[in-house]
Target: Exostosin GT47 domain-containing protein
Amino acid sequence: MAGMYRPDQANPAGRRPRLVVILVVAFFALQLLVFRVFRGAPSPGAPAAAVSHVPVLPRRDADDSGCGGGQVYVYDLPPVFNEDLLSQCDALAPMYSLCPYLANDGLGFPAKGTNLSGILPAELVGSWYSSDQFALEHIVHRRLLSHRCRTTDPARATAFFVPFYAGLAVGRHLWATNATDADRDKDCVALLSWLHAQPYYKRSHGWDHFIALGRITWDFRRSPDGGWGGSFLIMPGLANITRLVIERDPWDAMDVGIPYPTGFHPRTADDVRVWQQYAASRPRPKLFAFAGAPRSAIKGDFRALLLGECQAAGDACGALDCGEGRCIKQNELVMQLFLGARFCLQPRGDSFTRRSLFDCMVAGAVPVLFWRRSAYLQYAWYVQVGNDHEGEWSVFIDRDELRAGNVTIRGVLAAIPEAQVQQMRKRLVEMIPKLIYSAAGKEGLGDGMMDAVDVMINGMGRRVAEQRRSWSRL
Ligand SMILES: *[C@@H]1O[C@H](CO)[C@@H](O)[C@H](O)[C@H]1NC(C)=O
Ligand SMILES: *[C@@H]1O[C@H](CO)[C@@H](O)[C@H](O)[C@H]1NC(C)=O
Ligand SMILES: *[C@@H]1O[C@H](CO)[C@@H](O)[C@H](O)[C@H]1NC(C)=O
Ligand SMILES: *[C@@H]1O[C@H](CO)[C@@H](O)[C@H](O)[C@H]1NC(C)=O
Model:
């Protein structure tokens, strides 16, 4: 499981005297006893007077609208924390304007009339967009606002969503040479001071609050000695808030991995089924495919090695050079490649995770992974992870064996029996709904089909219940 084997934490307790262990156990047993005896009894004078009107548990009235994970309250933040950022869309990223990608509630511009529509089944052209990962904060916010499990009454909420577009806020300063550390953190500091004054924040100290981030966790973890990024995720004021993020820090339990957005944003379960059928039945002439930009300047770059493997495999492999943002601007090339391949290679890039993993899975190609942190230690709410399940929807290849020349990609993949490949593809295709951000309205996709945001709401419901012991007795 994630976070269980941090190397620098290996072993500490082993050599401590036994007495300490006994004392610790006794202490917790006593705590448990005290908790059991006093649970339910109002503890005199405990909750701060300012928040005494705030109920500790969400009020559960008759119509819960089938929201098993509970209901979500979406904060109405001052616009400086979200809407104002959208209006600066041409100045948020260095290489290109985000404006087209933030259109249509963050889904981007429609596939209709673009090259992307050329590779889609006709009835699904309206379900695809040119989407960008940085729009995720906006996508999640919009979808939660119209979600059937949203409540406008905080007293009924199980979880509280803070729609601060932190990735957009920090992104505009990441490349600006004249930006200071204080510039990168200014909005985050202001947001926390606003939030800490809210009664429902005070009730739980943030333990039932969450935020979504469209940039990787490392963009918000600047070391105290300076360096890359903002420091939002290491600010003490954010300590108790759950961060749903496209790449998590595997050693921070407050980070929860969520899918990168792909271009697929269907409205109904029927639309999803049409796509599932399409992905399941495509001819796949290529054994494997790789879309990536090699960093030729880096000696021993793993992506260059994979490109070499691809070339050596000849017709069995398809490659796409993603240099110059090609795979973002021309997503149809990526989807076409993956729809025609049985496997797709997913090495780490500049960070451990990539949008490409989700393009690959949505296309029904089986991902080939080389780092556990690229998926298994990331997306536990979304994909089955852990040693028991490797091989169900993915293939893991030991990168050192590959580097040593002991195995080849083609050799490993060609040795997997066709029946097993089909089984993996079937499993993947079943997983598609949970990996996508639907454009469904209040009723959701329908037929009980869950998308990535539905999974998020249920996940937060479970998490808040688990974490309640961190605060409900304060
Ligand atoms: C669409 O495809 C055509 C033919 O492959 C290509 O010439 C053109 O540049 C593409 N347009 C865009 C916007 O990518
Ligand atoms: C950095 O420079 C740009 C352009 O010269 C300017 O618009 C911006 O306000 C400056 N930012 C800061 C934080 O000084
Ligand atoms: C986090 O929660 C703990 C109690 O579990 C509380 O003491 C602390 O003040 C909280 N931190 C913030 C920033 O709210
Ligand atoms: C590669 O194979 C050799 C010979 O069997 C073995 O000694 C070596 O440990 C292998 N390398 C890796 C990284 O597994």
